[in-house]
Amino acid sequence: MAHAVVLLSGGLDSATVAAIARRQGFTLHALSVDYGQRHRFELSAAAAVARSLDIADHRTVSIDLSVFGGSALTAAIDVPKGRSPAEMEAAIPVTYVPARNTVFLALALGLAEVLDAADIFIGVNAVDYSGYPDCRPEFVRAFERLANLATKAGVEGRLDFRIHAPLVEMTKSQIITVGIELGVDYALTHSCYDPDAAGRACGRCDACILRLKGFEAAGLSDPAVYQS
After folding, report:
1. pTM of the entire predicted model
2. CATH number of the domain encompassing residue 106
């Protein structure tokens, strides 16, 4: 059975990607990243998702991107709330974390090379998302080329690295529908950028709005706990 590394943030998308990879028959090695994010509840959500999907190998690596700041997720910058779809699409938002997915994929690539795993799964999405440049198909393709140029296994021809982004062109409602079919327990996931001290979602940040709209479009109720 082939091995694969899946980036598992604890959010809705990464949980769905992990379930997709499992259905495809891969032995999964989940990787979460503690990068100094303010919404650290997602890390405990990632652990819960890994357990629910019977992923035996779940690792968390720490790299403090808050040293750089520059994002509402890693610095004392207000998280935007109550934005319309037009406002979300107008510009790259302040919740963008500089080079985050590049860093995450580089870490996943290092683990994959050690494990002799040619396949890496990531839950990026370029349809219902907040305009992040590192969620686009061209970014995924470019990193795949880099992976095969920058590793011993790739240069020697021992591994042909493939970056899988199965959600990249799906709407949030489509993602949720697929996840439900695969048995994903979305009550375990955490998407909010600005939860309260108890981990309850704000319901008004971009991530919450997109999540809620996705469940509504899918004809389902979001099982996440929201602040009243």
Report:
1. 0.97
2. 3.40.50.620
Is the pLDDT reported for residue 128 higher than 90?
Answer: no
**Domain-embedded: residue 223:** no
Note whether residue 224 is domain-resident.
no
Cα 22 to Cα 26, 116, 126, 176, 184, distances in angstroms = 5, 18, 23, 16, 11
Please tell me the distance from the alpha carbon of residue 84 to that of residue 10, in angstroms, as a whole number: 25
Half-sphere exposure of 106 (CA within 13 A, CB side): 8
Q: Is the pLDDT of residue 88 over 90?
A: no
3-state secondary structure of 121: strand
Q: What is the pLDDT of residues 32-54, one digit of tens each?
A: 999 999 889 999 999 999 999 99
Q: Which domain holds residue 140?
A: 3-217
